[in-house]
Amino acid sequence: MWLFDVFARLYNLNPFTFALMMWFVVLVITASVTMQYPTRRGKLVGFGITSVGAMLILGFLQLLTLSDTGKEIKEIVTNFVVMTLGGLGSGLLAVAISEGPTKDESEQARSFVRGLGLTIFEYVFVFILVCALSLSVVCLPLWSLGWPVMTGYAVTSLLVVFLGAALGCAIVAYLRRLKKWEQRGACLLFGWMLLLVPIYVQAIAGLVSWSLAAVLGFHTVAGIAMGWTVWRQRMEWL
């Protein structure tokens, strides 16, 4: 219990104690990961840990309600976090980029993309394709009848997303047949997905404002149906 009391006293010592404790934890985790895995991938993981940790700490500092003196101290703590974790993350990223991947790491990355990576992208694009197509079929007649929630721009956006998702599925199939350029293809698919998702979200914004529960219910049912289909396929393959 005395250890818990010490921890509680340190936590309540000042508003910045928790931020400094988080900084120490992030530093220890980053050091442990990079020492345990002294490879290019380990350094990239360390860069990710420091980046996420710094964002969490800075977000916590922004939520603090402080006096004028406390605000000055917050600036010092913020600069300290940015300089230390930011410098550590930048150094790890620079070393990882300058080293370049080894032959084994490149082969592992290609195997991952060929196996699980392309499968995940395929499922995501199929899910977007089915949802966009279903909503287009439902919303097109409603738009033609003058339903104010659905506009012509939204219907057009859904059709564009449908075609874009179909193109994404075609790219996945092409990469599987090609059996090379896996990492470049994965980057292309990721960028294409980031382009389609905002268009899709903007297209269904009117439906969300009309009934968020209906939109969530539709996507939940679509996700369950897709998961059930994938599970059945896996069971048949086994």
From TrEMBL:
Which parts pass through the membrane?
16-37, 44-64, 76-97, 118-143, 155-175, 187-205, 211-231
Q: Record keywords: Transmembrane included?
A: yes
Per its UniProt entry, which superkingdom is the organism in?
Bacteria
Q: Does Membrane appear among the keywords?
A: yes
Mind listing the UniProt keywords for this protein, alphabetically? Membrane, Transmembrane, Transmembrane helix
What is the official name of this protein in its record? Uncharacterized protein
Q: Which organism is it from?
A: Pseudomonas gessardii
